[in-house]
Fold this protein.
Amino acid sequence: MKYDNILTTCPFCGCGCKYYIQVVDGVAKSVLPCKEDPISEGHLCIKGWNAIDFVYSKERLTTPLIKENGAFREATWDEAYGLIASKFKEIKARDGAKAFGFFSSAKTTNEENYLMQKLARGVIVTNNVDHCARLCHASTVAGLAASFGSGAMTNSIPEVEDVDCFLITGSNTTEQHPLIGSRIYKAKEKGAKVILVDPRSIQLASIADIHLRQKPGTDVAWLNGLMHVIIKEGIADEEFIEQRTENYGEFKAEVMKYTPERVEEITGIPKADLIAAARMFANAEAASIIYSMGITQHTTGVDNVKSCANLAMLTGNLGKPSTGVNPLRGQNNVQGACDLGALPNVFPGYQAVTVPENREKFEKAWNMAEHIPESIGLTVVEMLNAAHDGALKCLYIMGENPMISDPDITHVREALDALEFLVVQDLFITETAEHADVILPGTSFLEKDGTFTGTDRRVQRIRKAIEPLGNARPDWEILCDVAKHLGSDQFVYASPKEIQDEVASLTPLYGGVTYERLDKEGYLQWPCPNAEHPGTVFLHNGKFSRGLGHFFPVSYKPPAEEPDKDYPLILTTGRILFHFHTGTMTRCSPKLNKEVPTGYVEIHPSDAEAMGIADGDLVQVSTRRGTIQIPAYVTRKVPEKTVFIPFHFKECAANMLTNPALDPIAKIPEFKVCACKVEALGESS
Amino acid sequence: MEQELKAHLKKLMASGDVAGIIALKSERGMAKPYLFADASELECLCLTPKYPMASVARLLLDEDGAARFAIVCRGCDERALRELAKRHQVDLDRLVIVGIPCDEEMARECACPEPFPSVVAVGTKLEQWEAEDIGAAYRAMELDEKLAFWKHQLEKCNKCYGCRNACPMCFCKDCELENALWVKHGRLPPEFPIYHMIRAFHLAGKCIACGECQRACPSDIPLMVLNTLLREDMEELFGYVSGTGADAENPLYTKEEMQ
């Protein structure tokens, strides 16, 4: 008998917990926490503990499928590749590269994201490549890049334990990033202050020194209000502002318009609480802003992010340990998918496609005859819109499920059905894959090698623990095979290690990242430009990536859709501890699904009473986009006139309801606010 | 001790008496439970940090219905194996226990009642050892303070089930913590105090004070305070200390508990 423990990295959130997979004779038996891993320290959340369940699910796809006469039939890999190659060639010859779109995946490895954008840019020759970061932290990537020059979490997870004052907003940390949440508790035990700004009474509310419950979509107003108080009371960090930043005057003129009285009017946050929070944050030795989707998923997402950046600069909380602006990335490798250029505007390492030298560099490296377009490509939502309009004919989706994750699902369905050819590469026949012409069976984190980059820019290995199930193949191999069938000779790699070596040669951010070092050192945090560089624990030490930090004056704009007579409530959406995103992995995990087997709408007792709704009743929730039926969860977790729906559940999909209105810069949809109505159906679920 | 142990294990392996040795292996600078089947691999053997080795033994004995293994055991590992054997979860006849003692630092970290196994094969056990009474501060509290203490501690719970998953004594296939009759599904934190009370009471007569539950807890809930109090009750009420004495009958063990 052979028994071993394979060290790998968790495939769920962005914390980047490493743990062991206990393997007996080639079969994964269970997860065993790794006590020496610096992130998990031998602790895991419920998803981590159960991470192998979905891998062995009976629903796993283990052979390629081709749709014929409206039904899928099993196919060989050669048949599937042959069909893809002939359709791709036909469409490219007829409609050109602009008719193609590629959805890369925050669940797959860095190497696979690199290959996906290489396939798009180097073989089909389009910049139409994007992934679900568009739906979560596109506003972070754009906002922080503008303010600081680098669009990522400034500090590191272990530093959270030593923060003196937290501003946590739009992050339900204990549910979405449990191993960061647990560090907030540790810091609190050591005496840290906790300011929570969240409409909902989440678990962290019980340890918050101050809980501000803003009206959803009013974040710029309260952030400006905090800064107004800090400037007015003379507790800003003048030295930092003077030495490290620019454009302070213009910024100051804007925030001085946000008196606590005006902020109370817009946000509903009592004036006295706002003032107390401002003093608490500005007077702390090391203050840290932790945020997530509650800040980013708005039509003002970039404005919200820039405001967080402003607050950190105003109080000098950057470039030192346990401070910073800390966007928590939701997926295991959404940081890496961005880093590796699965974005329509940048090559790997955020090298802009609009810069001629960058295009030349990659055209040369990839031995290209054609030229990569100088204009940026389409984003996820724009690609679907283009498909809907008939301009985009062919879409290749790897490990994404827009039929659940994107706003306004009815529109998504119409867009997918309008495509001439859809390829989906996934572990399961997802709601999206059902619309495909060809489905390619990829592999889970247990069945392949590669790297993930966690939320604190931490590049770590995943290691193959078991052989791919059935005829499934590692996603990097599939991408190489597709490229080869399209005639490319630039996709020859013996293993993901060789792909990373190519990445390092073209990407200064990852220049010093090698498998040898990752094996020896456990992880490397970017920027890590060369073999001698130790990696970077926190960013902007002494100097911002862009030189000086830039203060952007930001004015408050209301959400795209506000409650009115017909739709009197605010709908906000999000995730829960027990499930992950579109539920593809967690709903086939018995222990996770048992905890929360279906969706629900959280509704305040006073609203429920006014509508004659009891806890557990089936109700109807409607917006201008659609209607769903869903059980009511009557709870004080939500404030009055606001309801919350987790988006994981296809049978009561929150995204049937959400508003596809976009942030003008980041093109992120406004998942966090729209107007809705709730009606009793008079039956219990 | 490490070199001495390697030599001891090499001899054991050469004797052909065991199919493999369950112990920690150092790989890329980190320890992991491993089944050593080849003497040359023993160079990578290491001793720390602690891992729940009794659970590994149970897994491997289940996977291979006949093989005999050696296992490097600390005091807590041996206590766990004994208590598991009383409940027919492991067959001690198929295990060769190679006992090693804990040093004072490790013993103190765990507040271990007995930081060495019954037979020490390699190393020297602590001569004088008295464990810290980790229930002392709690017992000194007033009733309302006790309630406030647990309310504060348990509302940090992340419902990861890590305390149960890490516990060498939690072997039930169907766990009452997951039974909606007792604990509402899907709530965070889980209902106070039933979730943690069920686990504590189910460990009465089982908990061998290894501390794995507390170490597995992301929220630093002092679960060993609960477990220590129950261990004390078991001793006071029934004169039973779990894990000690392979022949001592467990007063709370009934046939119905067998799975």
Summary: Chain A has four domains: 3-56, 65-134+333-525, 138-328, 569-684.
